[in-house]
Every structure is written in C-alpha cells, then in structure tokens.
C-alpha cells in the first residue's frame, strides 16, 4: 500500500450515513494500481493449487468478487473470480479454464467472505463450487448504516477516501484474453474490500446496528437457492399490453424459441430477439413471413430463415387448442395488489395505509431504507390477514413466520400492533 493509501485507510470512516463531517474532507485519492500489481490470471490446475494453498494459509477475512457477462452471454455464469486475503495477496481466476473451484471454496469455507451486494454474486459462485458459511456484505452494511449511495465506488470514496475507476463494469467478461485494463479494474474491486468491511463494522457498532447486520448476513449465507421461476415468459417487458390468451400464447412460443436459440448459441436472449419485437408480434399475430417482416424488430437485417423460425412459433400459437392457451393471470398466493384493497376490503386498506406510514417513520428514525427494515410484502401479508388477537406476541410470531429476522421483529412489532386495530 502506498503512503497515500495508508493515510486514507487509517482514517477509517470518513463520513457516516447521516452525520456531516466535522471538518472539510480531503480530496479523494484515485486508486490506479493494485498495491501488489496485477496478478497473472489463474487458468490451469497447477496455478489453482498454489492459490488454494496460499489462501488456506492466509489470515483474516477473504474479499470475494465475480464478473459475469450479462447482456452478452446466456445465463449468469462467472467469467472471472477475484479474491484477496492478508498473507495471500490478490488472485484472479478464470472459471472457464478452471470450472471447479470447490477445492478453493473448501479451503476458505470457515472464513468470513466479504462481498459487495452478495446476493448478485452468490448464485454464480455456487455454480462453480464456492459457498460461504459466513459473510459480510458491504453494500447491505451501507444500507443499514444509512449511506445514501451504496455502490462499491461510492462507498469506497465516502468511507475510505479513494476513487475506483468503474468504466469496465459492463464489459463482456467472456472475452479471452481479458485486456490488462479490465484485469486491473477487477483486481482493484477487491483491493480495499476488507478495509471497507472493517470501517463499516465500526460504524454499525457505533450506531448500535452491528448485531442487526450480523443477523442479515447470516440469513443471506443460509438462504437456499431460489427455485426456477414458473412461466418466465410472463416477465417479458411490455407484457402488460398483451390481453388476449391467444396473444399470450404467441409470447410464450416466441419467448421459448428465443430461449432455446440463445442457449444453443450462448448469447444473451435480447441479442437474439428483443422483448419489444415479441410483444409486437403477439399484438399483431402476423399471418405470414411477409407480414412478420413488416413489424418492428423483424426488419431488413433478419434473414429469411430466421423470419421463418419466428413465424413458425407464431403459427404454433395460432393453432393451439383453446383449452391449452395460457390463462390470463397466474395463481395469486398472497394478498391482492394494494391498488385493489380499497374495493375488496376497505378496512384492510386502512390498516395498510397506517402501517406503511408507521414503518416509513420508523425507518427514517433509524436512518435506513424501509425495505431493509421490513419487506413490503411482509407488511402487506400481516395487514391483509392480521393475527387474532393482534397483540405483540401474535404479531411478532407472524413476522417471524414470514421470515423477518429477530431484530426486525423487535423493531417493527410495536408500530404494527398500533396500526392493525385501524378500522377506517
């Protein structure tokens, strides 16, 4: 670490989530190079074994990050994994060349992993055998501490006083070989992650929120992978315009055809056919290839063979028996949309309005986003079907049953008890 880096890091926390600094802040320092230089990319078993041994012998938490190729490739697999640990330095690993990192995951299994926005990276890390047992999420810590901007660059700047270059965040990380500027960017992403973690821990402790954060981190570490989404084609952008069941069938056929093509070619589905084009075809239900080619999204750059592929999908939807057409809506497992409450149950609507106002006031008092204090879905469920009697014990049990952590139950129960008796 350079002298400038030492000075800024030693200052620990430059600003808190809500309090202004006492003195004028020094100008942030651009972080241009990793302190140990850019390490070579690990792309063979022998090099991986050396990294595993080094990180197993290191000390303290392990900074972990992963880069995906969202918008370029099919799926959300990792194309680069970055780690840093005291005594081991920084490692950049190519998970395409080394697809099984379970040995590395086991070597640091009992160690605290430090990630930024952990829920974004954990699925792709899990796919290559890396699953933490303990973690610290610096983005979530920033939210709980009340920071208005919680991106990694913003946090590093406001907390540690460094400016991270973020120009390569949206590049195609499946590119091989990876350019040196990208590798520098990737190494810098884990350069100060542990320093950031240490400063945020002190700030959370100062605010009396450290135990809250620990409960949140434990919940993330213990969470099971989400099951595959049912009918993912229903999330096509612009789907709200599609009203008729036959048109929905067109969306489904085009979406599923696009997904198969994208998976086979290993490219982002949006690069095969846009959502807007799918919706356009569903609303028009073109009679033939000529009519399809006249629609937006199926223009002159699309070849005859491709047009025939999409028209075949439309034709399959056109001849689908009425009984097999998609239903207009999905089964609702929870409360109805809040906009419908006033008509369906005015008393419940009044409860929800009062509860939202109370939760909002409490979140402001605690200096954190409402959704981190308690999920909006949990509030809706409790207000739609409040426990009987709506006393502290039953409300606390209901919140816990919906997955609220103990600290959330303790904070939110008193304000919800006071609102669940609202009648009008």
UniProtKB/TrEMBL annotation:
Positions of the HRDC domain: 244-324
Pfam families linked to this entry: DNA_pol_A_exo1 (PF01612), DNA_pol_A_exoN (PF18305), HRDC (PF00570)
Region (Disordered): 1-36
Membrane spanning stretches: none
InterPro entries per the UniProt record, alphabetical: 3'-5'_exonuclease_dom, Exo_C, HRDC-like_sf, HRDC_dom, HRDC_dom_sf, RNase_D-like, RNaseH-like_sf, RNaseH_sf
Polar residues bias (residue ranges): 1-15
Domain of life: Bacteria
Protein name as catalogued: Ribonuclease D
Naturally occurring in which organism (per UniProt): Streptomyces dengpaensis
Source species taxonomy: Bacteria, Bacillati, Actinomycetota, Actinomycetes, Kitasatosporales
């Amino acid at each position: 670490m350079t002298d400038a880096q030492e000075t800024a890091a030693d200052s620990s926390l430059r600003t808190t989530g809500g309090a202004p600094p006492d003195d004028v802040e020094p100008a942030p320092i651009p972080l241009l190079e990793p302190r140990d230089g850019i390490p070579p990319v690990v792309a063979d078993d022998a090099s991986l074994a050396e990294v595993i041994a080094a990180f197993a012998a290191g000390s303290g938490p392990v900074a972990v990050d992963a880069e995906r190729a969202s918008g370029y490739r099919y799926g959300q697999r990792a194309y680069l994994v970055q780690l840093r640990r005291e005594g081991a330095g920084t490692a950049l690993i190519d998970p395409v060349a080394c697809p099984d990192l379970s040995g590395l995951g086991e070597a640091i299994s009992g160690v605290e992993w430090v990630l930024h926005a952990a829920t974004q990276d954990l699925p792709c890390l899990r796919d290559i055998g890396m699953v933490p047992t303990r973690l610290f999420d610096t983005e979530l810590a920033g939210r709980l501490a009340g920071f208005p901007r919680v991106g990694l660059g913003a946090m590093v700047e406001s907390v540690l006083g460094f400016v991270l270059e973020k120009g390569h965040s949206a590049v195609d990380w499946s590119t091989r070989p990876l350019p040196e500027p990208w590798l520098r960017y990737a190494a810098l992403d884990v350069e100060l992650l542990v320093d950031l973690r240490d400063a945020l821990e002190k700030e959370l402790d100062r605010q009396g929120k450290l135990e809250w954060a620990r409960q949140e981190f434990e919940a993330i570490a213990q969470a099971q992978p989400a099951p595959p989404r049912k009918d993912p084609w229903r999330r096509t952008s612009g789907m709200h315009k599609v009203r008729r069941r036959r048109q929905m069938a067109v969306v489904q056929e085009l979406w599923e055809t696009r997904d198969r093509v994208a998976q086979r070619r290993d490219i982002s589905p949006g690069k095969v056919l846009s959502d807007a084009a799918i919706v356009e075809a569903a609303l028009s239900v073109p009679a033939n290839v000529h009519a399809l080619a006249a629609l937006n999204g199926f223009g002159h750059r699309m070849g005859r063979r491709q047009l025939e592929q999409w028209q075949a999908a439309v034709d399959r939807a056109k001849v689908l028996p009425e009984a097999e057409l998609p239903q207009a809506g999905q089964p609702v497992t929870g409360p109805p949309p809040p906009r419908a409450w006033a008509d369906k149950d005015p008393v419940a609507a009044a409860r929800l309005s009062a509860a939202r106002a109370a939760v909002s006031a409490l979140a402001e008092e605690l200096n954190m986003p409402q959704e981190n204090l308690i999920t909006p879905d949990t509030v809706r469920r409790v207000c739609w079907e409040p426990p009987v009697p709506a006393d502290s014990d039953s409300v606390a049990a209901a919140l816990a049953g919906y997955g609220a952590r103990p600290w959330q139950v303790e904070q939110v129960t008193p304000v919800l008890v006071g609102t669940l008796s609202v009648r009008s």
